[in-house]
Amino acid sequence: MFSPQGPSLRELVVQALSSVERGYDLLAPKFDHTPFRTPDAILDAAAGALRPLGPFGRGLDVCCGTGAGMRILEPLCQGRITGVDFSTGMLAQARRAHPDAEWSAADVRALPFAADFDLAVSFGALGHFLPAERPRLFAGVYRALRPGGLFAFPIGAPPPIKSREYWALLGFDLAMKVRNAVWRPPFVMYYGSCPLSAVRTDLTAAGFTVTTVPLPALGRRADGSPRCRLVLARKP
């Protein structure tokens, strides 16, 4: 499915009926051949927005998966770069792709770092956390950053309610809620659970100063607003 090197429909079904950790362990060898990997266009746009704010010292990729975010951290950071994820399968793929980076197997809701990093990034991970879990995630990133450190991640604008994308994402979220109501263990992945306003509120409560910058390279909506913004959460 997706490409000759990607997972089959059966493999995706097995993954979807597993826990989040086990599902990504299973998918890891073929993950980079699916649309779930963060597209290079998003990585490049984020790097372009962060470049004028650097250079940075040490860098951290939160929920690093197979290490796509290292494409940003390597040129932006002058110190060591580290990826953290709870899927050992995904980390194994990341180590092969980026042997010079450091890797940590950990639940990012309890990050094992304290004032170690100057830049933290995350791509495509917020949907794996229920709204009630975000404060723990953001508090851990806050602890992991040095004073003045920056936490950056892209967040898309909600699609227009009349668009096919809106109804496709809504349908996916409803299907996941039904799946999690009738099947254990749960697989948390929701596209509509992290609007910018709620994310900003949670980041501010964690102690961050929050701004955003548009990513114009990713296009604009019909009203002229950007389709995607980069959230910049600064630790004072």
UniProtKB/TrEMBL annotation:
Keyword line: Methyltransferase, Transferase
Pfam family, one: Methyltransf_25
Keyword Methyltransferase: yes
GO terms for MF: methyltransferase activity
GO BP terms: methylation
Domain Methyltransferase: 60-149
Gene3D superfamilies found in the cross-reference section: Vaccinia Virus protein VP39
InterPro entries in alphabetical order: Methyltransf_25, SAM-dependent_MTases_sf
Name listed for the protein in its UniProt record: Class I SAM-dependent methyltransferase
Organism annotation: Nonomuraea rosea
